[in-house]
Amino acid sequence: MSTPxxxxxxxxxxxxxxxxFGMAIFGIAMGLMIYFTEVGETCSAAGxxxxxxxxxxxxxxxxxxxxxxFGIAISLRIxxxxxxxxxxxxxEMITSASSMTGERLADRLPVSVANDPLDQLAVALNGVxxxxxxxxxxxxxxxADASHELRTPLTVISTNLExxxxxxxAPSHWEHVADDTLAEVRRMNVLVDKLLELARAGNAGLxxxxxxxxxxxxxxxxxxxxxxxKLGVELELxxxxxxxxxxxxxxxxxxxxxxxxxxxxxxxxxxxxxxTIGPGPRIAVEDRGSGVPVEARERIFEPFARGxxxxxxxxxxxxxxxxxxxxxxxxxxxxTIRVEDRDxxxxxxxxxxxx
Length: 355
Description:
Elements: H1 3-38, H2 53-99, H3 117-149, H4 151-164, H5 171-201, E1 209-212, H6 213-228, E2 234-237, E3 244-247, H7 249-266, E4 272-277, E5 282-286, H8 322-332, E6 336-341, E7 347-352
Parallel strand pairs: 2-4
Antiparallel strand pairs: 1-3, 4-5, 5-7, 6-7
């Protein structure tokens, strides 16, 4: 017998037993009341008891036996009419809860339009399930984002060490390599902390403070220098005025790193990747590659999506997460990000932040 059927029938049996016991107690109480009321009454002439106790008990038993089947039938009928919808909904909730698995986090308990206590319980449990789903997805997103973002500092560290080992170096050079490596390790710690904040709190994980966008872009280009050393791609920061904005510095650094790395991956050898700041709190990153087809310009900002085929580079295969991370961070700043054609060929990624 299934659990839902057991629950529904169990409630029915409980009501039936309650009815039987209730009628039995009622019959006994009625007989005792009649007995103690009538036993003291006598006939005025002969002094005999009007209604002998045995006759009273027989009459009570006969009435009880006659009323019992009707009472049970009426009780069961009323019980079914009062509890049928409730037991059906309980059975449906148990069936839904039993079918939930770790691979089906979006499943929820059914809620009717009655808004009764059972619906309120289902809504409360659905809220718990929603928080569990959000937490699990946040952990999965953090793992994916962290694995993606750590590739850049690890590549920088590997490249610096490979170059330094090609020939004997002076101790001062190794000190410089150690300083650069330590800086990248510290940056990895910052990246992990920031991604964890974003995964746990969403937009609430962003801390806004005044910053100069040109300074952030220059630092991002410096970090990317080691990626372009043997790829034949130049990096340049277009001339312009300093532009201030209220942003999360670490998060916008992630956006710049991803956009510049994406441009490097798609830039042909011998061309340049250009970063332009302004007018206003605006960032544009341009490459001179094949551009992004119109039909793919929305899709490339989705997780694990890829636009056009990247160049054959040693920077490793992409996971399709960089632009999705950029969009989530820019959305958290209430800004916009888009891709358009660059004049003369190539792609231009534009980030516009609130003034």
